[in-house]
Design a protein that fits this description.
Blueprint: H1 3-89, H2 107-112, H3 172-185, H4 193-201, H5 206-218, H6 228-239, H7 244-253, H8 262-275, H9 284-289, H10 293-300, H11 310-338, H12 342-349, H13 370-378, E1 383-386, E2 392-395, H14 421-446
Antiparallel strand pairs: 1-2
Helix pairs in contact: 7-8, 10-11
Length: about 450
Amino acid sequence: MSGGTLKTQLAEATARMAEMERQHMEELERIRAAAVEEAAEENRRLHAAAQESNAQILRLQDELSTALQTQREREARLRSTEEEQARTLHPPTAAATPTVPTNRTTDLDYLRTPRGPSSTTEGPPPLRRASTFYEPSPFLPRNDEETPPPRTGHRKPVVRKPDPYDGTKSEWRKFRTSVRLNLIARRDDFRDDVDRVIFIATHLDGQPLGWFDREFFANPQPRWASDVQLFMDALEEEWGDKGRAEEAMVELRYLEQGADTVTEFYDRFQTLCADARVDPETRVDDFRHKLREQLQNDLVTRGPVEPRNLREWYQLAKRFETRRLERQAEKEAKARFRQPPAGRSSSTNAPKAGGGNQDGKSGKTDKDGGGRQAQQGSRGRSGAAPTRNGSTQPTSTGTATPAAKRCYECQQLGHIARECPQRNAKVAAHIEELEESEEDDAVLSKN
């Protein structure tokens, strides 16, 4: 092949590679452009969704403002009518009825300002303060005058906002806890309960949001509009797990420690008390009586010092449980070391093979007493003891055969009383009981 042909082929191959590289770069550029366009489209979609949500919030705020304005106008007309009637029925010197202040700055301030009493009609009952069950006292102030000044130089904890609550009863407890955490962590962001109610309402979705819209506009000034506790009570009554408190109370009534440790039982007890809306400190006696009987007996012999609260009772019961577990481990270790060797137990618990006759029968003597006389004659001297069939059997001088040994403790053949396994076990158990009683006396004396 000539050099010109090679150069031509090389040039063609180079051109093909360049063309392939160009196509590859064009494909990469097309993919990148498609990805950028897709990301931009997703951003536009999210932005549109956010704008729609903001628009919905603004519409709700506008409707709220309109409803409040309508309520104020209606009350103003009613008050004007009452004043006109009062001027007609009473002298002009009569005391004027207080009027609603007109220097409010926002619509929400109307909820924060108490209404003046009417001259002829009774107003709604006064709003109560939030109870300590929901309002996280002492973290939140009890009234607006106690609101602390903004803190400087302090970094707030990062708390995720509550997920929108759509009415799922199994998610109510999670939503309520998340709301409480936000009210605690963001307490400087809320001026009063009106702001807190608005914050919670913006995290409702689905049917709860429809309930809020329906209930609020059915009564433009609901009682829970300026009381976060009343608002959460109304939410829980309508959408919360209402039967959980009764179920937890029943479970608490029949709760027993059983095979649980003291720590596991204490955690279950605390959880059920929280679900049942019960203060655990009022159930100290229940906690003690639901422990295992051994721990109850230990708590009776605790000493003169009386625990002051549930936490101290739990710590005391945990110490007794730990002490019992340590003793049990010591007993098991001692039992492993006190077990007799396998060869000794087999040789002392069963008579030797020589204790019987050669024909397989037992070593009992005949009724005529001949065998007894033969055994008595063999004591105290060496030699061979005659057997029933006339053969002789060697015996030791001055001692009985192992088969003839009888224990007066268990009445078994093959060992004597000092070697009896039953007697040794009883003695070991008695020694352990004495050691435990001495340890208990030492512990009580320290307490």
